[in-house]
Each structure stands twice: as C-alpha cells, then as structure tokens.
Amino acid sequence: MAIIEMDDLIKNGLDRALELMAVAAHNSFRFGNRNTMKMVSLGNEELEEIAEFCLSMADMSPLAARDGRFVMELIKEPNGFLLFGDKRKSDFNYDCGACGFRTCAELNKADEVESLTAIGPSCQFKNINLNIAANAAASMAWRLGLHCRVFGTLAMAARALEIIDADITASVSVSVANVDPYFDRHKFWTKDYWDEIFKKEFPTFGRGFIGAIEDDD
Amino acid sequence: MSLERSLKQFEDDRKEAVRIAARLLLASGTTSPRVGGVGECTTHILDDACDIEDLCQQMEKMSEEKKAWGFFKRDAMMLRDADAVLIVTSLRSLTDPSDINCNMCGRLTCDYLREEEKLPNEPGVAFTGPLCIFRANNIAYAIDGIVSMARNLGIDYGVFWSVGAAAMRMKILPKATGFSLGVAISVTEKSPFRDIPLKYDEINQRTMNDRIIQRLWPQFRSIYS
C-alpha cells in the first residue's frame, strides 16, 4: 500500500474540509428560500494581498492592521479561507422596517452609499442569510476539528479589493496549524501600545477611592 | 378507552425531551460566534402552550396590519403545533452601533446612524430601524447555532421572523431589543414545519378536527341517540 505523508494528508484533508464547509454553507437555512449568495475560496496569494491592504489601513483602523499582521503569520501554515458575499437590495417583500425604510421598495429605491467596507443601505434579511451561511461553514469546520474563526475585517478588505462582486460580505478562515492561531493573539500588539490604549479607553481604571488620581509615574 | 399507562408515559417523556432539547439549543445558540467577538444576544424559551398561544394570537393580529404580512397567520398556525419556541434577540442593534463604520446600514459612519431618526413604534412597523446591521447580524450566528444543534439532535425546527416581531410587540423580550427572530421546535413523528398546505391557516389538523369531531359528532349524537 502506498504511503501518504502527513503533509499531503493534511493538505488533502483541508481541501476536502473546505468543500464540505462550502456545501454546508450552500445548503444552510435561509429566509425566503432564496440562494443569492456568492461564495469563493481564496488561496495564500489573495490572502497576502488582503493582508497588505489591511496593513495599509493602519491609521484608520488598528483592528484591520492587527488582522493584516495576523494573516501574514497565518499563511505560513496550511489554511483555507471561504469568502461569502451578496447584493444589498431586498427581494423578500417583508416590509419589516429593520433597514429604516418602511417598505422593501423604498430601500431598493434609496441612494446607494459606497464605502470601502460595504455598500449600503442593505436588507437586514440578506445579511442574516449571508451570516447564517457563514456560520454553517464554521459549524462544519468545528465538527471536522479545524481551527476556525469568522472574520468581518478580512471579508470587507476582500470586497474593497474587488475579489468578490458583492455589496455585503462575511468570511470564514480555517487552519490546521500546530497551535490554534485564531485566539489569544497577544503577539500582534506591543505591550506599550496595549497599555497606552487601555489607559485611554479606561482612564478611571487606575484611580483609587472615589476617583482620586494616583500618581503612577 | 383511556390511554394506556405506557402511552401516557411516552407523552410525558416527549415533553421532557422538548424541555431538555430547548435548553441544549439555547446553549449552542449562545456559544456560536459573534461579530467582533462582542456578546449582545439573548435567547428566551417559551415551552408553555399558553405562552405560545398568546404569541400566535399576536401574530394573527399583526397579519392584518400589512398585506405583506399575510403569511403571519400561516406561521401562527404552524407555531401552535410547535412544542417550544426559542426567541433570539439583539440587544445593541437599536441603541448602540458597533463603531466600526462598516456602512452596511448605508449611513457611512456610526455617528450618522445615531443621529438618524428611527421609524416610529406603530402598527405596520415590525422593527424600528435603521438598526446597526453589523450588530443585528449576530442573530444569524445564534440562529444557525440553534439550527445546527437541532439537526444534531434530530429535532424538527422552523425559523420565523414573525415570531420575533410579535414577541417584541408583546414586550416579553428585554427592553433594549432591536431585532429578534424565533425558532420553533417540535419533537413529533412528523415535522409540523414541512409539507404545509397552501391555505394552512384555514385547513389544518386543528380546524379539521373542530369541524369533523367538534361540530358533526355532537349533532350526530343528539340525532341518533
């Protein structure tokens, strides 16, 4: 019997896993019984492009930059990335009001507002269907024992780079790295930066009794 | 003929299974991903038939408000066959935008969204948008967490937005709720959420029963006895 090396097993398994995740997402529950969602799998080349874009956003969004630094590390080990997108207009005719317009027709007629992250205003139920699909993929990844995280930032960056023709996006990243790379990502922030931000956001944390300012220098 | 003891036991156990399953589904929905890793969803279980009936009546009332909501009646009839209902809420989508300026709501920045006037809470409005869509999307993950567990447990489920809208109108959810959706579950041999006749709000097991047994039998009995 032919021997298949571990690296090949892992790589082939990851490919199968991505396909199964795609099937789970494709067949997930959706309102209105419609499947208008688009889905693509991205490789390391596209992810590197996304990471560079995220890094270029550092001034505007420290979170995007963190995820950019993270992706640069992530692609060093076998990983997969599913990107989901959909158009923003409603074809449900629910007239629910969640988007701020009384009827779906009003939403569909409203002026389009473009930005790097998404095109709005978008139908709440389109968003729900899209994110249910993302969770179905994540749920399959979880069952298959993959490291997994759902990413908004990377999906938005992919849209800005026109990797997918969509108004709203979501994404699921999976990995078979030796250590789960998705959580406790402290190494992507320096200690000084973290301390500075914490002090800015929670200025009263270091204060003593009834707000007296303690000299901590 | 009265029910046999073993059959009564089966009915009791079936109901107990629903109670346990509903709580497991709540667990799965609660631990599903949240956008930005920020929690803001709650799940509420209705497993009392009277509570579910109240909800159904509210849905039927709302079905009269708008032509587009005519299907609420049908949903209500399906819900009457459900053993329990889980309602998932988003507590920050109405009042606390996520501050990431994602533009999914079409207002470019979260500050613009804060300034925007909300739809009034009046008949014909289910959710008083514009909501923070980024936040409300969390419900999608919670719902699929519930659905995923229901499938693992082999429990029949149906997802209804009419349930969330009616529960909000009844004010049985937390005050800050901006958006909510419902999942009905059933532990029965035939899913009450599939194979639904077109006029299900008029023609269903309950109304058939009412017409045939409740209406014809008393008449038949009084004539032929």
Protein architecture, described:
The radius of gyration of chain A is 21 Å and the shape is globular. The mean pLDDT of chain A is 92. Chain A has helices at residues 6-26, 44-56, 62-74, 104-109, 124-143, 153-160, 191-201, and strands at residues 38-42, 79-86, 113-114, 119-120, 147-151, 168-175. With 217 residues, chain A is an alpha+beta fold. Chain B is globular, with a radius of gyration of 20 Å. In chain B, helix 1 packs antiparallel against helix 6. Chain B is 47% helix and 12% strand. Chain B has 225 residues and is α+β, with helices and mostly antiparallel strands. Chain B is built from eight helices and four strands; from the N terminus they run H-E-H-H-E-H-H-H-E-H-E-H. Chain B has two domains: 5-194, NADH Oxidase (3-Layer(aba) Sandwich); 200-225.
Short summary of the structure?
The complex is a heterodimer of chains A (217) and B (225). Chain A contains 7 helices and 6 strands.
